[in-house]
């Protein structure tokens, strides 16, 4: 009996995944535990293994499809088994995927014979329910103004997918003369002055200019996955909060001295890997308990202050910015914080972070110091009310006992949500962080 391969649920916050790549083709032999495909959430990528030995009988979705979790994506069994009943949408729908052109022709013929009041064909979208439309297709249709009613789907079980919407997108006609000008390098306006918006050669002459960049020199990068999530969240954060950034610095002599001591410590102590950023995480996790208004979230009708610190920290990955969360950081030792930060950071970089480990933070730290940044404006990780930016260490002139001394200082940039935190309380928190960093050994003993 054939075995279903399901799109697994990766964390409580994930509703669907995009199929990036099929590693096995229909008809291939597969073994239990062998990788069948690679999929992507909006936060991470992971591989799906075969749950059984046998032949990959059917792939119900294609690369690029956005598939809801717990949906059957493929079937494994003995050669020749009928798995049409496993297809999302039912038996006959699986056959439609194999011959979409034929299905479309049959539907058109039936359309001429069927009264207008009849139910739509399996490969179309009805006005009453759109379960046969992928989320990506639905979003693209809304953006491009394409009516989904009656649209024929080429996906599994007649499901409408993004390419169906793109194929149905209304286009503006172009006159032969205007088309020739466009081939020569003229840029067409979105709509022309001709009948029905037809683009005429005069429209190109009036509003377009010769291309200055050859087509082969440009590259279009789809905004999707992690990049899309970052774009949406950053835009929403700046639109919906009142962000104020203040800058200060901390004497970094004790931090540097302790870091050097850790590097020189015996290997069995496990201290050599402790970084300056680990020390910042440790200090902030303690200071937040004394300033609970910074360990908080801003909601439409209330401010929620948390009694424990779930500390997020920014990680730079090839797929974009990720912010894993160290749970109960205020209860962890410096050594434990360092180990957890490394574990989470590696999972982000490798692309296999559990989505649940990217949620639930109460405050965030982002560090650009290693890149030589002197000052920047961190963007709030809403609904959190604060985020601390860590800058590079620079020599700063300070009045000493024997005149001016140049002392290494670590730059700090704190952004607050002014709706929840006023400037003076925010400055007091920043001042406390700077003092604790400057007296790091005392902070460890506290």
From TrEMBL:
GO molecular function: acetyltransferase activity; lipoic acid binding
Region (Disordered), start-end ranges: 84-157
Gene Ontology cellular-component terms listed: cytoplasm
Cofactor: (R)-lipoate
UniProt domain Peripheral subunit-binding (PSBD): residue ranges: 132-169
Family according to the record: Belongs to the 2-oxoacid dehydrogenase family.
The protein's name in its UniProt record: Dihydrolipoamide acetyltransferase component of pyruvate dehydrogenase complex
Keywords annotated in UniProt: Acyltransferase, Lipoyl, Transferase
Subunit structure of this chain's protein: Forms a 24-polypeptide structural core with octahedral symmetry.
Domain (Lipoyl-binding) ranges: 2-77
Listed Basic and acidic residues bias regions: 94-114
TM stretches of this protein: none
Superkingdom to which the source organism belongs: Bacteria
């Amino acid at each position: 009996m054939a075995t279903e391969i399901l799109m697994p649920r990766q964390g409580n916050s994930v509703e669907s995944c995009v199929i990036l790549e099929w590693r096995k083709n229909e008809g291939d032999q597969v073994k239990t535990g062998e990788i069948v495909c690679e999929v992507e959430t909006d936060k991470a990528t992971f591989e799906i293994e075969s749950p059984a030995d046998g032949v990959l009988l059917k792939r119900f979705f294609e690369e690029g499809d956005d598939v809801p979790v717990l949906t059957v994506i493929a079937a494994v069994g003995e050669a020749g088994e009928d798995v049409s009943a496993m297809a999302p949408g039912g038996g006959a729908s699986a056959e439609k995927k194999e011959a979409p052109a034929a299905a479309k022709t049959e539907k058109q013929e039936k359309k001429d014979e069927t009264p207008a009041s009849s139910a739509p064909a399996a490969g179309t979208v009805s006005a009453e329910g759109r379960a046969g439309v992928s989320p990506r297709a639905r979003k693209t249709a809304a953006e491009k103004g394409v009516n989904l009613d009656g649209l024929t789907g080429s996906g599994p079980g007649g499901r409408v997918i993004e390419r169906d919407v793109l194929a149905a997108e209304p286009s503006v006609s172009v006159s032969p003369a205007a088309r020739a000008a466009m081939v020569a390098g003229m840029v067409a306006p979105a709509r022309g002055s001709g009948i029905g918006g037809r683009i005429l050669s005069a429209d190109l002459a009036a509003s377009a200019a010769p291309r200055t960049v050859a087509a082969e020199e440009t590259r279009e990068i789809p905004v999707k996955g992690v990049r899309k999530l970052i774009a949406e969240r950053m835009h929403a954060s700046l639109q919906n909060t009142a962000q104020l950034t203040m800058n200060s610095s901390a004497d970094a002599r004790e931090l540097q001295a302790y870091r050097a001591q850790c590097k020189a410590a015996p290997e069995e102590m496990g201290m050599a890997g402790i970084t300056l950023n680990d020390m910042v995480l440790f200090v902030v996790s303690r200071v937040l308990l004394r300033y609970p208004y910074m360990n908080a979230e801003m909601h439409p009708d209330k401010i929620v202050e948390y009694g424990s610190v779930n500390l997020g920290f920014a990680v730079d990955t090839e797929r974009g910015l990720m912010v894993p969360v160290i749970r109960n950081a205020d209860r962890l030792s410096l050594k434990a914080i360092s180990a957890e930060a490394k574990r989470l950071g590696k999972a982000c970089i490798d692309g296999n972070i559990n989505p649940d480990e990217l949620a639930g933070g109460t405050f965030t730290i982002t560090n650009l110091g290693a890149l030589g940044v002197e000052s920047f404006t961190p963007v709030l990780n809403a609904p959190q009310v604060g985020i601390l930016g860590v800058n590079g260490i620079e020599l700063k002139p300070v009045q000493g006992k024997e005149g001016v001394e140049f002392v290494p200082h670590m730059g700090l940039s704190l952004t607050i949500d002014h709706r929840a935190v006023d400037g003076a309380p925010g400055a007091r928190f920043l001042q406390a962080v700077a003092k604790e960093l400057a007296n790091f050994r005392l902070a460890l003993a506290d």
